[in-house]
Prior knowledge:
There is one protein chain. 57% of the residues lie in helices and 12% in strands. The chain has 8 helices and 4 strands, in the order H-H-H-H-H-H-E-E-H-H-E-E. It is of the alpha+beta class. Helix 1 crosses helix 3 (55-62). The mean pLDDT is 92. 27% of the residues are buried. The protein has helices at residues 3-33, 39-47, 55-62, 66-90, 95-107, 119-126, 159-164, 169-185, and strands at residues 139-144, 148-153, 190-196, 199-204. A hairpin with a 3-residue loop joins strand 1 (139-144) and strand 2 (148-153).
Amino acid sequence: xxxxxxxxxxxxxxxxxxxxxxxxxxxxxxxxxxxxxxxxxxxxxxxxxxxxxxxxxxxxxxxxxxxxxxxxxxxxxxxxxxxxxxxxxxxxxxxxxxxxxxxxxxxxxxxxxxxxxxxxxxxxxxxxxxxxxxxxxxxxxxxxxxxxxxxxxxxxxxxxxxxxxxxxxxxxxxxxxxxxxxxxxxxxxxxxxxxxxxxxxxxxx
Length: 205
């Protein structure tokens, strides 16, 4: 595998690991508030599990294995959507606790952007969120200056998994995603702004 393809697989797997952390946040909330006896087992039995290992070890093992990647992307996408569905089905008000958990996860990210253009923060966020699987890019940057980056979004393939589990993608996935992003930005002077439904910016205040 050439270096670019290897790097792409590495980035994708890092996003998959972050998404598994989102899944585990749902399990922790279920355990804390007594929603299910064993949500983790339910998710495993219903959706399967991805292989958790050191990033470089995974890349060494599966580089060039397109079927492995496609299978595991489907598993992690289903795990995330299903985990949120189970929380919402048990008690929709728990969405507040999910958002708080995602925000807290975001605050644990250190973007190290001092003295750098805002696009650096954009890539920190982009490289932690699984949108569009292994190769598709659903964000298009339309303006990029030192103090601001503006992009548009088209519908990511991840939406189909939420539709399959009969979940409102924008109500649940989008809101959780934004909570995570706002957590990342908490200690910065950068603001996340939705200009229009599919036009978003990061800008210094």
